[in-house]
Amino acid sequence: MSFGLAKAGLGILAGLDVDSSCRSTYEHNVRGSSFVSCDVSKLATKTLIAQFGLKSGDDSLLFTGCSPCQYWSKINTDRSKSRQSAFLLKEFTRFVEDLSPGWIIVENVPGLVNKEGSALPGFLKFLTRQGYDFKHAVLDLSHYQVPQTRHRFVLIANRVGAPASLPNPSSRSVPTVRSFIGIDNGFPMIEAGYKDSTSFIHTASGLSDINLERIKRTPTDGGRRDCWQADAKLQVSAYQGRENQFADVYSRMSWDKPAPTITTRFNSFSNGRFGHPKEHRAISLREGATLQTFPKNFRFFGSIPAIARQIGNAVPPAFAKQIGHHVLAQHLSTMRNG
Predict the structure, then answer these.
(1) Would 115 be classed as within a structural domain?
(2) pLDDT of the chain along its 338 residues, tens only?
(3) Catalytic residue among 38, 66, 69, 227
(4) How many CA atoms lie within 13 A of 127 on its CB side?
(5) Distance of alpha carbon 143 from the chain centroid
């Protein structure tokens, strides 16, 4: 989010994250901004005020919250692991109440809207009490120049006079995998297990013998595991008798469709429709980053799992840039008319 907002022309003071492995990546790519490694639930507002010279009621101050979203995801994961980060919207409320920024952006999974126990209804009531106008919706990011079927809850709020609104969808056609990865887009053919020692990180995870056989049996350009699930040797025991559940697992992407949502495990063939459309492997780290709309010269630092996590957890920069342009245009219009 910081990178995309900066590309739109906003000045980024700082990014806060509990995951310290993001520091080198953040500081290298979001120049002039500070990376604050902390548990936001333990961070006092006065600490931020002192560190960055913030003032309450600053109309040009923008807060954006993109808290971990696994707890509210539709994917059936162990929610006990993500419970601690499930209600960070309440922590976000503390900073809004104490500093009253002119603008607020929230991005999260759609489950934040309708899951029982969500902090969203209380947050919306709080915004109304604080005098904010706001607009929110679940957006399909494939309509915002992101080549994924990625649905995200987005809220933009302000208290500076302009009616709140969200950026309009792009009039362009929905982008596809073919337009972003493949040989014609600068991605040479590689095999599973290839390690790229350059900053391009065209690195692909290895495959066990049986998974290599599975992907070779999976038709190119969108093939699914149902083509081999009747083979007792290849069938995945976890899905025996449940062949229609999680049908995208062990499947390939399609060239002429958007990719599925890029998750933190996108570099694993067994964790979704993350098989390369043609080659017998999961997509590489750089291919995942490119489908997330990171530019090819964006540098990532850390271990392979850490980089995959950074990529999958990110707000696609192309979308963040559109949000930034939208908010900046509204803010400048308000200043001219105010």
Answers:
(1) yes
(2) 999 999 999 999 999 999 999 999 999 999 999 999 999 889 999 999 999 999 999 999 999 998 765 543 455 545 454 444 446 888 889 999 999 999 999 999 888 887 677 788 999 999 999 999 999 999 999 999 999 999 999 999 999 877 899 999 987 889 999 999 999 999 999 999 999 999 999 999 999 999 999 999 999 999 999 899 889 999 988 877 766 777 789 999 999 999 999 999 999 999 999 999 999 999 999 999 999 999 999 999 999 999 999 999 999 999 999 999 999 999 988 877 76
(3) 69
(4) 26
(5) 15
Does residue 289 contact residue 308 with C-beta atoms inside 8 Å? Answer: no
The residue behind tokens 């489908």 is: 291
Contacts 24+ apart (CB under 8 A), 222-231: 222/251, 222/252, 222/253, 222/254, 222/255, 222/257, 222/277, 223/251, 223/252, 223/275, 224/248, 224/250, 224/251, 224/252, 225/249, 225/250, 225/251
State how far the alpha carbon of 130 is from the alpha carbons of 31, 61, 139, 153, 197, in Å: 33, 16, 26, 21, 51
Indicate the Cα dihedral angle 159, 165, 166, 168, nearest 10°: -150
Range of the domain at 152: 52-172+318-337
Can you tell me the distance from the alpha carbon of 70 to that of 52, in angstroms, rounded to the nearest whole number? 30
Element holding 98 (H helix, E strand): helix 88-99
Residue 37 lies inside a defined structural domain of this protein: no
CATH number at residue 149: 3.40.50.150
Report pTM: 0.93
Residue 22 annotated to the active site: no
Domain count, the chain: 1
Reported as half-sphere exposure (CB side, CA atoms, 13 A), residue 221 has a value of 3
Distance, in Å, from the CA atom of 313 to the CA atom of 110, rounded to the nearest integer, reads 15
